[in-house]
Automatic annotation (TrEMBL), chain A:
<dbReference type="GO" id="GO:0016887">
    <property type="term" value="F:ATP hydrolysis activity"/>
</dbReference>
<feature type="domain" description="ABC transporter">
    <location>
        <begin position="10"/>
        <end position="244"/>
    </location>
</feature>
<keyword id="KW-0067">ATP-binding</keyword>
<keyword id="KW-0547">Nucleotide-binding</keyword>
<dbReference type="InterPro" id="IPR003439">
    <property type="entry name" value="ABC_transporter-like_ATP-bd"/>
</dbReference>
<dbReference type="Pfam" id="PF00005">
    <property type="entry name" value="ABC_tran"/>
</dbReference>
<dbReference type="GO" id="GO:0005524">
    <property type="term" value="F:ATP binding"/>
</dbReference>
<keyword id="KW-0813">Transport</keyword>
<dbReference type="InterPro" id="IPR027417">
    <property type="entry name" value="P-loop_NTPase"/>
</dbReference>
From TrEMBL, chain B:
<dbReference type="InterPro" id="IPR035906">
    <property type="entry name" value="MetI-like_sf"/>
</dbReference>
<dbReference type="InterPro" id="IPR043429">
    <property type="entry name" value="ArtM/GltK/GlnP/TcyL/YhdX-like"/>
</dbReference>
<keyword id="KW-1133">Transmembrane helix</keyword>
<dbReference type="InterPro" id="IPR001638">
    <property type="entry name" value="Solute-binding_3/MltF_N"/>
</dbReference>
<feature type="transmembrane region" description="Helical">
    <location>
        <begin position="452"/>
        <end position="472"/>
    </location>
</feature>
<feature type="domain" description="ABC transmembrane type-1">
    <location>
        <begin position="284"/>
        <end position="473"/>
    </location>
</feature>
<protein>
    <submittedName>
        <fullName>ABC transporter substrate-binding protein/permease</fullName>
    </submittedName>
</protein>
<feature type="transmembrane region" description="Helical">
    <location>
        <begin position="284"/>
        <end position="310"/>
    </location>
</feature>
<comment type="similarity">
    <text>Belongs to the binding-protein-dependent transport system permease family.</text>
</comment>
Length: 250, 482
């Protein structure tokens, strides 16, 4: 992962976002390289989820530049649907399609968007199900799954489009504690395989273990960023110190 | 989107016109006129035991048409709608025991006066009302748009009574007999005929009609001169050769049973059902037809409105909201009158009653459908759309493949509810003269005065149809969940 010729996958420059008087993001700039795993931490309401959702334009910035995979998505002329095909997203609440079975959830986008024919999409879906350890759930309704299973299916669904970048928005926050490990394992394997990943999470242990870089958000700003060792062991920013003292206690 | 909407609208109107014409069209090489009447007006206009329209007016018209070589399609409706249909060019002429007054002369051209009449007033048999003075504080029942009503209103202040309006004579008489109101004003011969045939009223001025005047056949002022001339020519002839006197004698001399059927036919529910089987079936058929077209087209229109309502384009959303607001806000009957009686004068084109009726249902029920369709789509969790979009699905495809299938499931109970409402709302269309189940009931009651039995039969028929509709809907719902 510490490749010499690193390529920038995500480039964010001077992005601002307000909801009315609430200035949720202030002049954010961040670059993410290919194969890099960036974990964003910070208190609730610090803007990290809003920032993540801007990377595939589920939220639009008020100003600034966002370039993902070489496409300037802050430019109105860019076909956002095309860009999104290469950005996988995993949500806190899974958001599996309730009107489809597990297999159909995974196959829907590649088939609808003409990326794969039905047979190829099914083959790929079954491979992905094996990867996330849920081969036996292919034909069940998504409502019969546990939260941990749902989230692993959601990861498989995102991977079915063969994305270059994966975004995770608090993927384990809605899970029962005993389910968290299975989901984190899948994510760890994905990181090991070289996927570029941007993750918003409260799992500090996971961040330490998997992240190439940890970014600390507070009050709509990036207060500090660096290697997990630097951020967790020798934090410089006072707010980060305070934040860590609270979460590490728990 | 706009283009599609316009296209759908045009197709719908054209389709509806065909439906209407298919039902109402007649081969027309001889002049064929549309004549309206109020068939709850014996002895002038009513339905006989075979459900044929008859009475003094109808026989005069039939005889004259035969002599003068024209044909006509008779449209029975309330008196008020009957005259307004002619005034708005929806029909060519009206014969409905219509008094010739100066006010009406401003709108209509009348043919030769054919029957001397005047206004009478009546109270419940055994009432202690002796003179007009006793009406102080009482309620007087009058029929909308009649000269009896005009007269009652002209003396209302002087005698200090309240008025209540009705659209058909039988309901009006029963209101007086049941003491909801205490007197009525109407055409003297009509009240006398009703009394003679057993209606429990007492006529207060049998020998002295108020504002004695004449009945006339009417066309819209300045229109249909040919029809009017033919009527006058034919009338002169039947007056001369005695046919006219025979017709009048036939209806005034005979007891109502001659025309309305024997006691046996009218005094049991089964007898009424048997004697009027074909009328009930025809009414039911018309109701089912209106319901089916209403449900199918209103659902399509409602889905279009609902989809527009969740569009990304604010203008399209605005159009949907406005259409829903307007047509959900208008009472169904106002909309029906507007389309059937108001619109033709403006667009210069006749709209058949059934077409107007279906259009009314589609616009009204479609607005309600549009509102719950939009609501159903909005009720689908936002995350579903975000997940679909994040995979790269465009908005329209995310709607079609993810949001709509889930939304429609949420909506199914609302659809079933709306279907039942649509079926019931068809009864309101009797106001524009569509001979559906409710109007059929009105006509039969006006003939046999068996309000309780006839309305009970009509109610049971509605319940049966609604039950069938509910079963069908539930069956479809179950299948959609499978």
């Amino acid at each position: 992962m510490s490749d010499a010729q690193t390529k920038v996958k995500v480039h964010v420059e001077n992005v601002n976002k307000s909801y009315g008087d609430n200035h949720v993001l202030r002049d954010i700039s961040l670059d993410v390289s290919e194969n890099e795993v960036v974990v964003m931490i910070g208190p609730s309401g610090s803007g990290k989820s809003t920032f993540l959702r801007m990377l595939n334009q589920l939220e639009t910035p008020d100003n600034g530049t966002i370039v993902v995979d070489g496409f300037d998505i802050s430019d109105k002329a860019t076909d956002i649907n095309k860009v999104r095909e290469n950005i996988g997203m995993v949500f806190q609440n899974f958001n599996l399609f309730n009107n489809y079975t597990v297999l159909e959830n995974i196959m829907l986008a590649p088939v609808e968007l003409g990326k794969l024919d039905k047979a190829a999409a099914e083959k790929k879906a079954r491979e992905l199900l094996a990867t996330v350890g849920l081969s036996d759930k292919a034909d069940v309704s998504v409502n019969s799954l546990s939260g941990g299973q749902k989230q692993r299916i959601a990861i498989a669904r995102a991977l079915a489009m063969s994305p270059d970048v994966m975004l995770f928005d608090e993927p384990t926050s809605a899970l029962d504690p005993e389910m968290v490990g299975d989901v984190l394992n899948v994510m760890k394997n994905l990181a090991d395989s070289g996927m570029t990943m941007i993750i918003v999470t409260h799992e500090m242990g996971f961040a330490k273990q998997v992240a190439d870089r940890v970014v600390f958000f507070e009050s709509g700003k990036i207060q500090e960023s660096g290697t997990p060792e630097a951020v967790f062991n020798t934090p410089k920013n006072a707010r980060l110190q305070e934040f860590l003292s609270k979460v590490m206690h728990a | 989107m706009k283009k599609i909407k316009k296209y759908v609208l045009i197709v719908a109107i054209v389709l509806l016109s065909f439906v209407g014409m298919g039902i109402e069209a007649h081969a027309a090489d001889k002049p064929n006129y549309v004549i309206t009447t109020d068939a709850t007006y014996p002895p002038f206009d009513f339905q006989d035991k075979n459900n044929q329209y008859t009475g003094i007016d109808q026989e005069i018209l039939k005889t004259i048409a035969k002599r003068e070589g024209f044909t006509y399609t008779l449209k029975p409706m309330s008196f008020n709608s009957a005259t307004q249909s002619v005034a708005s060019d929806q029909a060519d002429g009206v014969i409905a025991g219509m008094s010739i007054t100066d006010e009406r002369r401003a709108v209509f051209d009348f043919g030769t006066p054919y029957y001397r009449s005047g206004i009478g007033w009546a109270v419940k048999k055994g009432s202690n009302i002796k003179s007009l003075k006793d009406l102080k504080g009482k309620t007087v029942a009058i029929k909308t748009g009649t000269s009896g009503a005009d007269y009652a209103l002209s003396i209302q202040k002087q005698y200090g009574f309240k008025v209540v309006y009705f659209n058909d004579s039988d309901t009006l008489y029963n209101d007086v007999i049941n003491d909801n109101s205490q007197a009525t004003f109407g055409d003297l011969p009509v009240i006398q005929y009703a009394v003679k045939n057993g209606t429990a009223l007492k006529v207060m001025n049998p020998k002295a009609p108020i504002q004695a005047g004449w009945y006339g056949f009417a066309v819209k002022k300045g229109k249909n001169a040919q029809l009017l001339a033919a009527f006058n020519k034919g009338f002169a002839a039947i007056k001369k050769d005695g046919t006219y006197d025979k017709i009048v004698a036939k209806y005034l001399g005979a007891s109502a049973a001659t025309f309305t059927g024997s006691k046996k036919d009218n005094n049991s529910t089964w007898g009424i059902l048997k004697a009027n089987r074909s009328a009930f079936l025809q009414g039911l058929w018309q109701t089912v037809l209106l319901t089916v077209f209403g449900i199918v087209l209103a659902s399509l229109w409602g889905i279009i409105l609902g989809v527009m309502g969740v569009s990304q384009n604010a203008v399209v959303r605005g159009i949907s909201t406005t259409i829903i607001y307007i047509f959900r806000g208008l009472p169904l009957m106002v909309l029906a009158f507007f389309i059937y009686i108001g619109l033709p004068g403006v667009i210069g084109m006749k709209i058949p009653a059934v077409t107007a009726g279906i259009l009314t249902l589609v616009l009204n029920e479609g607005a309600y459908t549009g509102a719950f369709v939009r609501g159903g789509f909005e009720a689908v969790d936002r995350g579903q759309m975000e997940a679909a979009r994040s995979l790269g699905l465009p908005y329209s495809r995310a709607m079609r493949r993810v949001i709509m299938p889930q939304g429609i499931r949420i909506m199914i109970p609302s659809f079933i509810n709306q279907f039942i409402i649509t079926l019931k709302d068809t009864s309101i269309l009797s106001a524009i003269g569509i001979l559906e189940l409710t109007q059929t009931g009105s006509l039969i009651v006006s003939r046999n005065s068996q309000g309780f039995r006839v309305w009970a039969i009509v109610a049971v028929i509605y319940l049966i149809v609604i039950t069938l509709l509910t079963w069908l809907s539930n069956w479809v719902e179950k299948r959609s969940h499978a």
